[in-house]
Give the backbone structure.
Amino acid sequence: MAVSLTEAAAKHVRRSLDKRGKGEGIRVGIRTTGCSGMAYVLEYVDEVSAEDEVFESHGLKVIVDANSLDFIDGTELDFVREGVNEGFKFNNPNVRGECGCGESFSV
Amino acid sequence: MKKNTMALVQIVEPNTPVDKSQPRLAVGIDLGTTNSLVASVRNDVPVPLADTQGRFALASAVRYLKDNTVSVGRDAKQCASCDPYNCILSVKRLIGRGLEDVQQLGEQLPYRFQDGDSQMPLIETVQGCKSPVEVSAEILKVLRQRAEQVLGGDLFGAVITVPAYFDDAQRQATKDAARLAGINVLRLLNEPTAAAVAYGLDKQAEGVIVVYDLGGGTFDVSILRLTRGVFEVLATGGDSALGGDDFDHAIANWIVQQAGVSSDLEPGEQRRLMRLACDVKEALSSAESTLVQYKAWQAELSRADFEQLITPLVARSLKACRRALRDSDVELEEIAAVVMVGGSTRVPYVREQVAHMFAREPLADIDPDKVVALGAALQADVLAGNQADSDNLLLLDVIPLSLGLETMGDLVEKIVPRNTTIPVTRTQDFTTARDGQTAIALHIVQGERELASASRSLARFELRGIPPMVAGAAKVRVSFQVDADGLLSVTATETRSGVEARVEIKPSYGLSEDAISRMLEESIENAEQDRKARGLREQQVNAQRLLETVRAALQSDGNLLNEQERALIDEQLEKLEQAQQGDEIGAIARQIQQLNAATHEFASRRMDATVKRAFAGRQLEEV
Ligand SMILES: Nc1ncnc2c1ncn2[C@@H]1O[C@H](COP(=O)(O)OP(=O)(O)O)[C@@H](O)[C@H]1O
Ligand SMILES: [Mg+2]
C-alpha cells in the first residue's frame, strides 16, 4: 500500500514546499465532481490528522486520507510538462475510465 | 488505457474551494512602465477589460494622498506636476533593483529616495516610505478589482508579463507585488512571447518571429523561433533607455529651443512640458502637422520635422535589432513575421523604418498597446485549465548573459553562452594546476567579458577533499544547470575520487536591465582590449606555473645540478619573473622559452632519478 512520487514530482514538491516556506508534505486525495465522478486533489498539508496515512517518498511526506486511499492506492505521481501546462499526472492503476473533460475518472 | 487526456493537477492551499463547473477566472496582465492592462478570455476570445468609464489602459501611476488614500491611473498621472514627490510614475524601472542601480537613475527621477538599511530603494511619500514592490502592487490591485468586477467573481490567477530582459530579482519582485495585491501568479510570461501568442503565431506555420516592442521607456526586440508548436526565444536585445518618452524629450527640447526658454525647469514645470510634448507626438501619429503652444510661444510642428527629431532614436532601435539578429544567427530571409508591440509603434515613421529594415510589412492589426495583455490572457486561460485540449505550447526562455567559471589568473571560461535556451545542463572538465592540490575554488561569474574581475560574481564555492595527485591528473567535472525558472545550480565532482560539491545560486538583487545592456555594450567595445588582456593573462599564468614548477624541482632535486648549471637556471628564473610582472606578451613568451631551454637537461636528469626512485619503491613494496 503506497502512494509515491517520481523523482521529477518529488523535485517539484520539494521546491514548492520550499517556496511556500512551510508545510508537512502534500495531500493526495480524491473528491467527487466532474462528469465521471471523481477528481484528484493535491494540497499542501500543514497538519496531519488521525485518519491520514503517511507515506514517505524521496524523503517527502505524501499524506492520503483513509477514504481516498481505496481509490488511489498504488498511484504514482509524476510531474510533467505538456505543452505550456506543467503539472502533476496521476498514474493510477485503479482507473478504468476517464471522462472527456479530462477532469474526472472512475475506478 | 485511453490516450492520456487527464488534466494536469497543481498543488493548492488546503481548503481551497474548487468548483469546476465554472471556468476559473484567469486574466492576463501587462504591467507596463507607462500603461498597464488586464485582459481575459471570454467566449474563447481574449478581450481587454475596461474600467467603469470604458478605458482600457491604466496609467502606471500611483499617487499617495495625505488622507491615506491612494489614487492610481490617469488622475495620479495628471497630478504628477502638482504633487511630484507623491506621484510615482514608471515604477517598473525601479522594481527589483538595488539602491545603487536606482541612484544612478535618480538624477532623472524627481523622487526622494530613502537609503534605509534594506536593499530596496524606498520612495518618501506623505504616507511614509514606499518600496517599488508596494507601488506596483497598488497598480495590480486596481487591475484585479477591475477584473473581478467585470468577470463577476474571485480571480483564480493571472499571467503577468515582464520584459524579456528582466532578471531573477526583477521577476521575483514582480511576483511579490502580485502577492501583495492578492493575485495568484500562474506564470510570468515574456512580453514578446505574449504578443506572438496574441497573433496566434503559435498555431501557424513554423518560422522565425521578430517582436519589436517600443513602449514608453524601453525598447525590446526578441527573436523567437516556432518549431512544431514550440516557441523558442533565440535571442533578446534592446535598449533599456529608449522609448516614447525619448520622443517626448526630443519634442520638449525642440520646444525649449524654439521658444527660447530656460531648460532648467523645476520638476512640476518639467512634467507639464513633457505632457505637452507627448500630446504633440501622439497627435502627429494621425495628423501631418500640429500646432504647439507653450506659454506665450506657439509654432507649427510637421510630421516630417518630428521624424527628423527622432531619426537617431529609431536608428538606435534598429541597431539593437541587427545585433539581436546576429546573436540569433538568423538571416533576414528566414523571418516569417515581424510583430509590432508598444504604443510607440503607432508612430508611422517607426513602422516604416521597421518595415524597411526587415523588408516586410510588420503585423500591427492588433492594437499594439493591448497585444501583450491579450496574449497573456490566452496563456492564463490555458494555465487555469479552462481549455479542454490546449494545443501544445511550450515556451522556452534564454539566459541573457553567459555563465562561466573563473579559471586561473582571472580568466573566464564560458560554460553556458548567452542566449542558450533553458532549461539547460552544460558540463566541462577541469583539472588541478598544482601537484598535490586537494581543493579547487570555483568562482561562478556572469557576463560577456573575458576577465572574471570585469564580470559579475554570482557565487564562490570550494571542492575539497581531492586526493593529492600530480597537477593535471585530477578530473573535476563541473556541471551548470539552469532550470525552467532560470535558477542556476552548479555541481563540481572529482571523478576519480567522487568527491562532490554543489551550490545553488539565488541572486539577491540580480543584474539590472541597465547593467545587462551596459555589460553587453562593454563587451563589444572592449572585445579587442579583452582579447589582448586575455592573451597577456594566459602568458602570465603560464609563466607563473613554470616558475613554480622549476622552483619546486630545484628544492627537491637541486642536488642534481652543479653550481654553474644552478646559476644559469637561477638567472633565467629571475628574468622570467621580471617579464611576468610586466605587460609585454612577447617578452614573457620569450623568457618562458629561455627558462624551458635552460632547464631541459635538468628535467631529463630528474626524470631518470624519479624513474629510479619509482623502481626502488616498487621493489620495496613488492618484497
Ligand atoms: N498614437 C500614438 N502615437 C505615438 N505614440 C503613442 C501613441 N499612443 C501611445 N503612444 C506612446 O506609447 C508609449 C506607451 O506605450 P506602452 O506600450 O503603453 O508602454 P509601456 O509598455 O512602456 O507601458 C508612450 O510613450 C505613449 O506616448
Ligand atoms: Mg509594454
